[in-house]
Write a structure and sequence with these properties.
The structure is a single chain. With about 220 residues, this protein is of the alpha/beta class. It has a single domain, classed as 3-Layer(aba) Sandwich (Rossmann fold), CATH 3.40.50.150. Helix content is about 35%, strand content about 30%. The chain contains seven helices and ten strands. Strands 3-2-1-4-5-10-9 form a seven-stranded mixed sheet, with helices on both faces. The longest helix has 11 residues. Bound molecules: S-adenosylmethionine. S-adenosylmethionine binds next to helix 1, helix 4 and strand 2.
Length: about 220
């Protein structure tokens, strides 16, 4: 059945330079998403990133001299290897090669980052379950940020249904579900968040995106 586990094949095999080029095509290498939410990240002592990829968000936080302890969760063996090597001399960065669907987290965090369409890697049924897990990792004043494309603003993917999108690649297909604002509000309520707000923005390559901020 399509879902997060089958989408892992792409991340486990895509060459790093191809992944980086997709990041550039999306306009994410310019960090516009992170700049928009930076004011919320500044006071954070512990930040968790779900699916850290090759470290784009970690690089932003380190370059901006954020003092937060960063927990970078990454399921892909090849990307985890890249991250472990890249940040081995940074005591504030803890790279954890694990799956967000099953990982246990001991110390709660101030912020969870789930950016660059990370949520779309999970099937419709999986998304609310993972969101609930992420809620449980947050401190009482915690915030979760998730970034998704706006409908009909796709770079390298095509629709297979109103909200079902498939990205066909030589490294395997990514089958995704694009939640609507109402879906996210429902997930948030189910997970125990009390407030949802959204920032609509354009990346440097003119992609229309939305960052949702979920507060407890
Ligand atoms: C679109 S990339 C986002 C990379 C990075 N967060 C960024 O903003 O540049 C999604 C990442 O999530 C990872 N991922 C997908 N499913 C995951 C899971 N179940 N647990 C942990 N990481 C996962 C993928 O391997 C990939 O590195």
């Amino acid at each position: 059945m399509p879902g997060n586990d089958s989408n892992k094949i792409f991340y486990n095999t895509v060459p790093l330079e191809v992944f980086q080029s997709l990041t550039q095509q999306g306009g994410f290498d310019q960090f516009v998403d992170l700049e928009l939410i930076e004011k919320y990240l500044l006071p954070s002592a512990r930040v968790m990133e779900v699916g850290a990829g090759f470290g784009r968000c970690i690089d932003f936080l380190l370059n901006r001299k954020h003092q937060a302890k960063i927990l970078a969760i990454e399921q892909s063996p090849q990307l985890s290897k890249v991250l472990l090597e890249k940040y081995k001399d940074y005591p504030n960065v803890q790279v954890i090669h694990d799956d967000i669907k099953t990982i246990e987290v001991e110390d709660k965090v101030d912020v969870v980052l789930w950016l660059f369409s990370g949520m779309l890697d999970f099937a419709k049924e999986e998304q609310p379950v993972v969101l609930k897990r992420l809620r449980s990792f947050l401190k009482n004043e915690g915030k979760l940020f998730l970034d998704i494309p706006q409908l009909a603003e796709l770079t390298v993917a095509k629709y297979t249904g109103a909200q079902d999108i498939v990205m066909e690649t030589p490294y395997g297909n990514i089958t995704t579900f694009l939640p609507s604002f109402a879906d996210i509000e429902n997930y948030a309520t189910q997970a125990g968040f009390s407030k949802v707000s959204v920032i609509h923005y354009l990346t440097k390559t003119e992609k229309k995106r939305s960052i949702y901020m979920l507060e407890i």
